[in-house]
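User: hey, got a sec? need RNA polymerase-associated protein RapA folded
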Amino acid sequence: MEYLIGQRWVSHADAQLGLGVVVGVDGRRVTLAFPAVGEERTYAMDNAPLTRLRFKDGDHISTVEGVELVVTAVDEHQGLLLYTGLDHHEQEMTVSELELDAFVQLTTPQQRLLNGHFDRHEDFALRVATLQHMHRLQTSPARGLMGSRTSLLPHQVYIAAEVGRRHAPRVLLADEVGLGKTIEAGMIMQQQLLTGRAGRVLVLVPPSLLHQWLVEMLRRFNLHFALFDAERLSEMDESGDGNPFEQEQQVLCSLGLFLDDPERQAQALAAGWDLVVVDEAHHLHWSPQEAGDDYRFVESLAACCVGLLLLTATPEQIGRESHFARLRLLDPARFHDLEAFIAQEEGYRALGDMADALARGEVPADLPSDMDRALPPPELLEQLLDRHGTGRVLFRNTRATVQGFPQRVLHRHPLPLPEAYALAEVDDDARLFPESPYVDDSWLDFDPRVDWLVDTLKAMRPEKALVICARADTAVALEHHLHLRAGIRSAAFYEGLSIIERDRAAAYFADEAGGAQTLVCSEIGSEGRNFQFAQHLILFDLPLNPDLLEQRIGRLDRIGQRGDVQIHVLYLEGSAQETLLDWYDRGIDLFRDSCSAGYLIFTHFEERLRAQLAQRDADFDALLNDTAEFTLRTREELREGRDRLLERNSCRRDVALGLIEEVQSLEDDDTLENYLEALCEAFGVDCEYHSERTQVLRPSEHMLTGHFPGVTDEGTTITFSRERALAREDLVFATWEHPITQEAMDMVHSTELGNAALGTLKLKGVPPGTMLLEALYTVNCVAPRALQVDRFLPLTPIRLLVDARGKQLADLVPHARLNTLIEKVKKHTALAIIKQVQKEVDAKMTLANAIAEERLRDILPAAEARMREELGAELARLEALREVNPSIREEELEYLRYRIDECAVHIRHAGLQLQALRLIITT
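Assistant: Yep! Here you go:
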């Protein structure tokens, strides 16, 4: 080996030194300067850990002056290499190796292999596995649905898949109480962010739910939202960094933050959002005559954002006008006339009859004219729902169709009416809430409901009970009495608490070990919060609004409740409380069966009901009978009309079950568990057994990098079991789409780890000294994430195994089999081998590149055809749909046409990327 002054060499013992230049040759010693680190090193020539740097045609090089060239020719003059290449202006120039930039990074597999930078075979196998897993996830139909810590419920999975895959979705989520609208919104956001369809998200929620949303999004979906309140915004204003809403990608705040503050409104509107989410949207004030400030602000946001999710009560709860107002936010061009909207809704009953007939395999005679009667009934049903139904912008599942809910068991607890209440002069409020006139807590001493509450809670220990009353003063007084005078572990939840204090109270109640036995809530506790871990609901009073009563019951009667809901209603005999209880129980049957049309029924009978609350008389039985008949008729009308269409379109159960099966198949085997163990071994992270399908990851002193995703200094406990993750919030739920997995895979993919290896192999019938080259390529398509080109053109790993004659042996010797046979080679032996076979490696690389390019020529047209078939079919469907269903927005069609054209351009310009090389010598 000859060393000459000016030659460039690299150290395979320490690649961080950069490019070295020979500055001295003295007998058996050679001295190199490493300008990148400002050091000189002297080596014995016989065993110097050095490799001569030789770039080849097609390599990219940089000079000390910052000129970048693509090498076109390599010559040697007086022992020094001369590189000829083209710069970015396509101008040709020649530079000496003396002029090369010292900050060279040998990262390509071929550079590292030929310069003696070898990885362990385990790292090579990890790289191959990583690329195969990434390809599989890109092509999975359940992409974007695997990473949530939720039960896999068909109606939620279907809505998340249907809405999440749309460009700029604009929909109304109006599932009945207890069906998990917040979870659906989280799953949609997670999918939109993961797939690149959205990057900037604004979520507006009531103040009482801010921290609940913050925690839910992080715990269930690994979504990190910035919580904006007045104090934080003021601090950001003082920093002088411009619009605070432009400084975070995902923002969570209260709608009240913007009311009476035009400057904040202007900032939010100017920030530009891909997706805006509004919870409890039915509280926005609107009427045909006037819109409230809150509605007008959301309307302005809706006009300047591309995606919009509204979470709201069911349409029949809020009335047709209010329901129309929500739809108008989604698409003002489509929903511009209230009268026309009401007229359209009247026609849903006939469509429901047609849908039922098609579901039975019958083709109705009065099908719409745009539908081909020759098609099979299932296809006609799809078209009917798609073209004439409401499911494009509105999703509403009911408890009756979802099923799986617990029974509601009513317990009536009559108590004597105290004389102090009976003699008091009362108004409407005091009839239902007799303690309300008292300015102090003296009513606690004689109200029989208080003693009943104390005795009952002590008797049911340790079972938890949620207590709800209408007024905050009542809740505070009761909680103090239970805690201080009765010795019952309790917490209060009412309007006067800060958001953090409410969260603490809810967490104290939820704690199984040392938590509160009871949580005493004012009316705000009946909306948004979920306490399905308890089975006892104690209603200290009843609200004069059936929807509020349904909300109260819905805190326990919801998805995830494992026992029957025991509803205890306390009432004073002969009082208005007893009358209201009878009306709810015998008129609407609200305690045993959820009724989303409760407020509609209430408004119909409000005048008669109020009269009976003031003075119950013989007309009350007639009121009960009329209410029961009207309730039955209303429920039937809802089922016959819009309900049937909505429910068919809000959950296609066969589609949902297929997606759930795909997710479960990826969770049930041990592939992810084994892969994460291999990742930990490669990066020096300790992986300890905790329990079945649960491990503890801890940093070690031998970590390859200073940080491993998701691993804290104290260690991180992860579980691969969805069931266990749902039961144990302290465990990280490790999935293929969890940030730990995703970021670790990116670390492998984006670095040189495992991209070059050398080993030996014994093969019968193959002469010793035979050289095999294992090469792994992927398809490299540079395109914006939002286009989702990888759906049609994924990484597509191409593995080749080329022998001395250029024959391709990959199919005969699979990668997994090869890993069990290959043997390590000592470093100095490997370096000696590589120096002798560089020309042979170059020749085999030429053969491998040719084979891979030939395969790419088949892959790209197939990918474009697949893209045009899938997106073209969707475009044709939406174009036909828009002719009869105006809920399809023109911008959706325009984006789809643009996406087809752009995807085609990027697919045609895709190329190959060499990901890994392994040189194998037979022995």
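Quick note: Residues 154-334+393-397 form a domain with the Rossmann fold fold (CATH 3.40.50.10810). Let me know if you need anything else on RNA polymerase-associated protein RapA.
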